[in-house]
Design brief:
The complex is a heterodimer. By secondary structure, chain A is mainly alpha-helical. Chain A has helices at 3-24, 31-74, 82-107, 114-136, 139-154, 160-196. In chain A, 84% of the residues lie in helices and 0% in strands. Chain A is elongated and about 75 Å long. The two termini of chain A are 22 Å apart. The model of chain A has no long low-confidence stretch (mean pLDDT 85). Chain B is of the alpha+beta class. The chains are: A mainly alpha, B alpha+beta. Chain A binds chain B through residues 1, 5-6, 9-10, 12-13, 15-16, 18-20, 22-24, 76-83, 190, 193-195, 197-199, and chain B through 12-18, 21-22, 24-30, 32-33, 36-40, 44, 48, 70, 83, 87, 90-91, 93-94, 96-98.
Amino acid sequence: MDAMETQELKERLALIEQMMMAGRRSTENWGWTFVLWGVAYYVAIGWSALGAASYAWPVTMVATCVLMGVFLARRDRKPNTTMNRAIIGVWIALGVTMMALMPALAISGRFADAHGSIAVVCALLGMANGASGIVLRWRLQIASACVWWVSSIVACFGSQMQALVVFMVAIFFCQIGFGIACMMAGAREARGMKDGAHA
Amino acid sequence: MPELPELNPVVHGKLRLAVLSLLATADEAEFTWLRAQTGSTDGNLGAQLMKLEEAGYVAVEKKFVQRKPQTLYRMTEAGRQALTEYVQALKQLLGSAIGG
């Protein structure tokens, strides 16, 4: 076998790996949801600061869910892979946990303790990002999870304002920054695949 | 010297190989998704999918969702077997090439 044939066979093997990764790395296609929820958190925080603390969070969260539903309904249906189901399962479980826990905390009056609320939210987001990052073997998402976990610990100390600042910084890096990085990586991979798979 | 394996010509086509690799990780996939992932044209992708279907490597299902036609493809057991054998043969060939 000559060098040219060997090179062609290597390219075939690389193509198989690249295409299999395309089916797996679907989280990159969800980058916009991280940005959307990051902006939603900022809106809720800002709205609460303006004096609408009792309804700013529930209204913003429900509105974001509806907005996400509208966007998802317009998207092309993606294939359902085993890994996709695992990742989607983690995020749905997080969503249900947040939607059940946060209103309960608010109604019972325990949401007033900003330290506890921020720590719980950061820890839950760390858990979801950590699980997703480990399944995908994706260092960037694991790093994002670590930032959430550190924020969760830090939020337990200092003043309420300091805890809020920590939360906002974590949102910036782990939601908006991470979301934009995902979208850029997704676009880069899509370009790479188009270059690599032509018959 | 052991005989080198032959590569399955149906699987060996670049676009067909890309499609089979994509379907290997998915339960089922739409034509539009396969087209987007491979960057191919409708005509070329359709022709290659037909060859895979004729070989019994993919199964196709056509249906209407909200009055829009939807074509779903999934890999058959024969397709999975063919891809596995192709990868094994490829590795064996590359191993012999590297080994001299």
